[in-house]
Amino acid sequence: MNNIPLLMKREYWEHRGGFLWAPVWITGVILVFTVLGILSAEAFHSSSNIHMGFSLDELRSNIGQADWSEAGNALDMAQLMFGGVTAVGVFFVLFFYLLGALYDDRRDRSVLFWKSLPVSDTATVASKALSAMIVAPVLAFVVATAAYVLFLVLVTLWAGAHGLNALPAILAAHPLGMLWRLVLTLPISALWALPAIGWLLFWSAYVRSRPFLWAVMVPLIVLMLNWWLGKLGAPHIPDDLHLAGILGRLLFSILPGSWMKAEGSTVLGSHISRSLNPDHVVSTFDPSNVYGLLAEPNLWVGVVAGLALLAAAIYCRQRRIETAA
Q1: Cα 228 from Cα 247, distance rounded (Å)
Q2: Residue 230: count of CB within 10 angstroms of its CB
Q3: Distance, CA of 12 to CA of 128 (rounded, Å)
Q4: Cβ(254)–Cβ(132) below 8 Å
Q5: CA 139, CA 13: separation in Å to the nearest integer?
Q6: Coil, strand, or helix at residue 283?
Q7: What is the reported pLDDT for 193?
C-alpha cells in the first residue's frame, strides 16, 4: 500500500491528456468565445452603433448599488459555470478511464508485466479509484479557477476601456468565498462518486469484452424489467424507493456536483434544499448546506456499496489475467 502515491503518479502521467489537458481545452474554448463575443460587440457598436446586450457607456452613467450586487451575483454564476462545464468534461474522462482502467491491460497482456512487479492488486485498484476521486477533480478545479481569473481580467479590461470600473462588481461578488466553498465540496464529491467508481472498475476487471455495454445495459435492463413487472401487477420495487435514482447513481455519481440533487436533505431535522439559488449563488454552497449530506444515509449506503464493488474488482483482478482471444 506504500506504493499507492507512486501508482497514482503513474496514472496521472499515463492519462494526463484526460486529467489535465481536457479541462484546459474546455476552459480555453470558453475564454476564446468570451473574447470573440467582446470583439463582436465592439465591432457592431463601432460600425453601426448597435448595442449587443447592453451598453457599457449607458451602464456607467446609470448604475446603482443594487446593480453592482446583481453584477456580483452574475460573476458568482460565471465562476460556477466554469466549474460546471469543466465537471461535465471530467465526467466523460472518468467514465471511460474507469471502464478501461483494469480491462485495457488485460486486453493487451501488459497485466503480466504489472503483476511481475512487487505491487499488490489492492494497491493497483486503490490507486485508480483514488485518481478518479481526487486527482482528476482537483486538477479540473484548479484549471477552472485559473480560467475564471483570466475571465475576470478580460471583463475588467473591457469595462475599463469604456471608463467603467469593474472592481465594485468583483467585490460585490464572492470570488474567494465561492472558491473556498467549492474547495469544501471536493471531499463530498469524492465520497458521493464511490458507487460509480466501484461499479465501473468492477466491470473493467470482470468482463472479457465490452465493459461499456455491461456497465450501462445492466442498470437499464433492471429498470425496464422492474417497470414491466409493475405493469403486469407482479411483485416489483415500488417507485417510492427511487430505483431509477439508485441505478443512475451507479453511472452518473462521478459527475462532480451531482450530489446537489440528493433528496431527503435534513439538518437537525429541518429540510434544506441544495438546488441552485440563482439569486444568491454563493448560499447554495454554504458549508452547513453541503456538509449536511454527511448526516444522510444515502451517502453512506453509497460509500459502503462502492467499497464492496471495489473489493469485488480487486478479487476479479487477482483471478482474471487475460481477456478472450
Answers
A1: 16
A2: 14
A3: 10
A4: yes
A5: 13
A6: helix
A7: 95
User: What beta strand segments (E) does the chain contain?
Assistant: 266-267, 270-271
Q: Which residue has the cell 480487486?
A: 314
Q: How far apart are CA 323 and CA 100, in angstroms?
A: 13
- Whole-prediction pTM value? 0.85
* Number of neighbouring beta carbons within 10 Å of residue 223: 16
CA distance 129 to 248: 19
- The one-letter amino acid code at 305 reads A
- Walking along the chain (325 residues) 10 residues at a time, the average pLDDT comes out as 83 92 95 87 63 50 57 81 92 94 78 67 91 95 94 85 71 76 91 95 91 92 82 68 80 87 45 59 80 87 94 87 50
Beta carbons of 19 and 93 less than 8 angstroms apart: yes
What span, in angstroms and rounded, lies between the C-alpha atoms of 246 and 194? 13
Taking phi over 0 as left and psi of -120 to 50 as alpha, with beta for the rest, 119 belongs to beta
The CA-atom distances, in angstroms, between 61 and each of 51, 68, 151, 291 are: 16, 13, 24, 43
Separation CA 136–CA 12 (nearest Å): 8
- DSSP summary character for residue 270: E
- Hey, is 272 helix, strand or coil? coil
- The secondary structure of 51-103 as a DSSP string is -SS--HHHHHHH--HHHHHHHHHHHHHHHHHHHHHHHHHHHHHHHHHHHHHTT
Please name the residue that has the C-alpha cell 439569486: 279
Which are the contacts of 75, defined by CB distance < 8 A and separation ≥ 6? 152, 155, 169, 170, 172, 173, 175
